[in-house]
Structures are given as structure tokens and as C-alpha cells.
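Bump. Still looking for Citrate synthase C-alpha cells.
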Amino acid sequence: MTTTQQQRNQDALKEEFKISSDPDAAPVVPSGSHEKTEQNVVSTIEQPTDDNEVYSVFTPTQKKLIVLTASLAGFFSPLSGSIYYPSLNTIAEDLGITATKVNLTVTTYMIVQGLAPMLTAGFSDGAGRRPAYIACFVIYLAANLGLALQNNYAALLVLRCLQSGGSSGTIALANGVVGDIVTSAERGSYVAFASVSSILGPTLSPILGGLLSQYWNWHGIFWFLLAFGGVFFIPLFLFFPETCRNVVGDGSIPAPKLNWNITDNIRHANREKAELRVDEKKQEELRKNYRLTFPNPLSTLVVLTDLESALILIASGLTLACFYAVSTGASTAFRSVYGFDDMQVALMFIPFGVGGIVSAFTTGKAVDWNYRRHAKINGFPFVKNKQQDMTEFPLEKARLEVALPLFYLGALTVLGYGWVMDKHVSLAGPIILLFVMGYALTAAFQILNIIMLDVYPGRPAVASAANNIVRCELGAATSAAIVPMAKAMGNGWAYTLLAFILLAYSPALLLTMKSGVKWRRAKKQKQEEKDARMAKDLS
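Sorry for the wait, here they are.
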């Protein structure tokens, strides 16, 4: 064993004792001490064995705080996108424009929302998450100031695009942060927690928007976003740590000065006191690759050329397309069917949002439980703080066994919602269906998001950006089309068409569940052959 390996083993052992002292940490089971039963036992190992490195030096409590912050940062994009849904008719009247034109501000926002993460994902993978967050919030705050002061349609349209560009990158960054510090074995709960903000935004923000529009005016919406964004950005700038593995590795490598926060000095000083030395060779390697460059957005599009990724991304996009169609069409539908004003329309988003909140507390646990179940069936060790080789593990089956029933339930509730609105039934009908729909669509989207991070463990921000492209462009299409569709076909047939598309796509997920392991094995073999050729050319 080399001196470097000995040092790494010592560091890992010290980190084991350090993290296991955290009150929230799971018990650490030393290598070789696992008890065995008659069946295959799932061994829960909090830290690596002698020949493996720790995946992240952040404690479970620190991970939760980091993911919570990233999730809240990701909330601003969907929050800003739909906060003025209840005010669309009021804005059209004030600016003297048609409902179709004001709906175009929603569509263009979502188009930019899909494209902007292509830049921030690549940038953050090279320069780190902190610089990307800072750039996003500076652009976002400037756009909100302009929106609060403008009074014409052209300015509204352009500044909404700028607002979207600043805020939308934070969604990809949130999932990138989860991929930086959380392994596949524990990813379900964390990713569900991180991604739920992108779902709750479209459901909860109209309630807030309705209140602001009813008791202030629609300009007040943007003053609120400016103040809220500024209050959140200050602690993010001061305390949020750099997590990008291309910059700080497992978190033990000090970040470049541009990526430091005010707690980094204390954290690394404490590690030095505990004699947890920095791997200087690793630090030198990371510094050599550190760069602040304009990213190539095409790297995100490469994800779409992979068959498995494309199938998952389309499913995720269709799920969100139905979600956005209901959200965008609600203002017009509830006004025409029930004669609601802005505030009453906003209140109808509550059951939608509550369903999403319930899914956030249940989906991750269900996904992690099913992962452990398959690990036990396949005799696969359940490791919480070391990323394993998942090539032969049936990840797709473990995830989609939970997602598919929710996918079907979501389609059925979309179908039912369309017809209860078409037939003008009692208000209890749409309220119940909106709750169940919010739960099912949110949960299905979260699990599909987890699969994307599983398939692309090395570049989580890029995988999330690709997810964003598909879901936002499909969402933009349905947002623009749902009102004309409902007028031409009626609410019943308009939402029946959306539900049919969702159900008709489900065989693609069944194919993914069946062939996922085979596809990932082939990709790994192809990459190994490519690496071997490159090594041969260099030698």
C-alpha cells in the first residue's frame, strides 16, 4: 500500500468517527462486522471500507441544510413564472391587449426557462455552483426591478424573458447540488425534497399572486419578488458552501477564493485541528481544471441523444405539460364556469399545492424503500455515503415500480378534471381532483427526475438542465394551446386529449424498466472502449 493510500485510509477513518458523532447520522457498521440472516441482508454502511473514499465529508445535518437552501433557491423560477396567473385578465385590461397576447408572456417565460439552464449547468460544472448562483440572482433581481417599474407590453415581454433567464438556472443547480453530495442509495428523499419546489411554485404562487393583485396591484407582484429575492440572496451569498465535485471533490478540498463563503475558513480550520489533511495531489488536479468560461450549451443537448435519457425526459415533460396546462387554463376556466374573481381563482390552487406538498413527504420515502427492497433481492449492499457502480443494479425497475401507478393516476385525474369542468358540476368535484392530480403528477415527476440523476451521476446539473429543456418546452406548448383548445373543443375533450397522450406514452416507461440495465451496461462498455483507445493513443 502506498503512502498516499495509507493517508487516504487514515483520513477516511477519521471522517468516519467525525460524521458518526453527528446525532442525525445513521449508525456506522465497521467493515466485516455485518450480521447475516438466512436471506440476503442489505448492509447499511455509512462510510467506506479500507479501499474506498468517502463520497461527501458533509454530515447528514449539513446535507439537509444545503439541499434545503438549494431547493428554496430553485423555488424562484416557478414562483415567478406563475405568480401572476390570477392577474392575467387584469394585466390585459390595463395594458389594452388581448388574453392571447398576455398568455404569450407565460409561453416565452417557459421557453427561456427551458433554454437558460443549458448555460448555467455547463458553467457551474466548471466554475462551481456558487458563482452560478450569484450570477443567476443578480440577473433575476435586476429584471424584477425593471418589471416593477414598466407599463407597456413590449417591456413586460422582454423583462419577463430576462427574469426567467436569471431564475431558471437555479432548478438545474439544485439537482446538481444533490448529485454532488448524495449517493444513489439515499437520493430518493433528497431529490424529492430538492425538486418539489419546481412543482409547488406553479401551484402556490398563484395564491400569493391573487392576494397581491387583489389588495395591491399587479406591479406589486414584482416588487414582492424583488424584496423576497433580495432577502434570500444575502444569506445564500454569505453562507452557502461550494459543493461541485469538479471544484472541491468530496468537500474536503478548499475552494478557490472566488467560491469561498464566510464559514469556509472555520470549517477547514476545524479539519486541520482534527488532523484531516488536504489531498494536495487532488487539489492540484482540481485547480488545473478549474475555469470560468462561457459554457457550450450543446453539451446538454447530447443527453437528449441517449435513448434511455430521451424516453425518461419525454415522460417527465409530458407530466409537467399536463400540470402547466391545468395551471394556465384555470384562470379562464374558473372565471367562465363559476364566475370567480382573481382571489377566488387563486384559492382554487390550494388543493393542487397541498397535493404536491403531501407528495414531497411521501415520494422520497417510497422510492428509497423500494431501492432497499431491490437491493435485498439482488444481494446488493446498501451504501449511504459511497457512490457504487450501479451498472448491474435494476435502478429503472426500482424507481418506475413506484412512478408508473402515479403516472396512470395523474392521467386519469386530468381526464376527470376536464369533464367536471365541462359539465359544470359542484365545486367539490374539481377541488378533489385537483388535490389528487397535484399529488400524482408531482410524485411521478420527482421520481423521473431521480432516474435522470441515476443515469448521469457524474454531471447532475447537465442532466437536470436537459430535463428542464424538455419539460419547459412541452409546458410552454400546452400553456399556449390550452385556452384555444378549450374554446374550440370544450374543457372535456381538451383535457381528454392530454390524458390520452400521457397514457399512450406509458409503454415507453415499461420498455425502460425492462431494458434499462442492458442500455447502461452497453453505454459503460462503449465508454471504456473509448477511454482505452484514448489511453493507447497517448502512450
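Residues 214 and 343 are 6 Å apart (CA to CA).

Edit: fixed formatting.
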